[in-house]
Amino acid sequence: SKEWANDSLKSKCYLVYGLAKYGKSLAAETAYAGLRLRKASAADIATLVLATNELGPKYAADREKLVDRLTGSVHQGPMGAYWDDSEWEWGAESTAIALTAYMTARPSDPIVPRIVRYLMLKRKGDDWDSTRDTAYSLIGLTQYLKKNRELTGTVEARVLLNGKLLRTAQL
User: Fold this and answer.
1) What Å distances lie between residue 101 and 34, 48, 81, 160, CA to CA?
2) Binned average pLDDT, 10 residues per bin, the chain of 171 residues
3) Which residue, 38, 48, 50, 160, has fewest beta-carbon neighbours within 10 Å?
4) Spatial distance between the Cα atoms of 136 and 23, rounded to a whole number of angstroms
């Protein structure tokens, strides 16, 4: 439709993912087939990695090519691995979505810890630059922690009031 033609590529990629995620596979496949990805940002490509994963094994080859494209556009340095943001993305958004894509498609890829390093260094206190990049970062980092089980084991928490122990709990 005319409206579809005027939508941004970012919106189209996200729509394909949303349709695929929520069971509208035929509509997602149709929309995906019409995408022109020459000017796609890293976030667009990462979103399509997630979409093709939702579309199932029939799209495994596409998913792998998309991850390869992400790998080809990464910047690596002492701070880790990251992607440039486009004009519609803020802070670490592209990198955070890319982490989620890698955790979905290639969780054991050696680049993953470098992406995590970059995101952790870009954090500002309890968050990143925006609500959106904070949310994307938390999604990717949660997947990373779940897979790598870095936080397994028990931790003892002690509640003190004025220096007096009130309660101890095992977490």
Assistant:
1) 21, 9, 14, 42
2) 68 95 96 92 96 97 98 95 81 92 97 96 88 91 87 77 89 71
3) 38
4) 22
